[in-house]
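Could you help me review a protein record that somebody else here produced? Here is the record exactly as it was handed to me:
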Amino acid sequence: MLEEQHIPIEAKVFIHSGKTYKYDFNLLTVEQAELAREAGEFKYNQLQNEPENFRQVIKSRGAEWLSIVLSYLLREVKNDILQPFNKDKAESEVEAFIKNLPISYLNDLRECATDFFSGIGKKPLILANLQGEKKRNGIEMLLPILQKTMQGNLNQDA
């Protein structure tokens, strides 16, 4: 569902190592949007169910979620012409391009991801992913407190 009030950011162009890629919310295809949304939701769900160890994060590619999402959102520009979206190229060439960009591009990349998820009505998802915080429900938050309180009471009674 697209957000009616969303005003997309201006298109962003990324140039590095002789290649040019562009993000433009208004020119995204349904396929691009669906793939990027799924990748973002995968990371969000991973945050809700914390992995047992860091190797699981690496193996699931959870640490690479931003590059994966953006690989679906950027399209190559050749001779000033925006190229059609190609899923296979996105998952190989575009992702490699993003991973090799200098750190100075990171804020612009995050802005593109935030714009996309805001535009499809999923702003809380991108904010949680960027912050890397688990959103816990009330029971999950209260259970450890209750356990400590009960343990303290048991220790006092002993």
Observations:
- Strands lie at 12-16, 19-23, 75-78, 81-82.
- Residues 12-157 form one domain.
- The chain has one domain: 12-157.
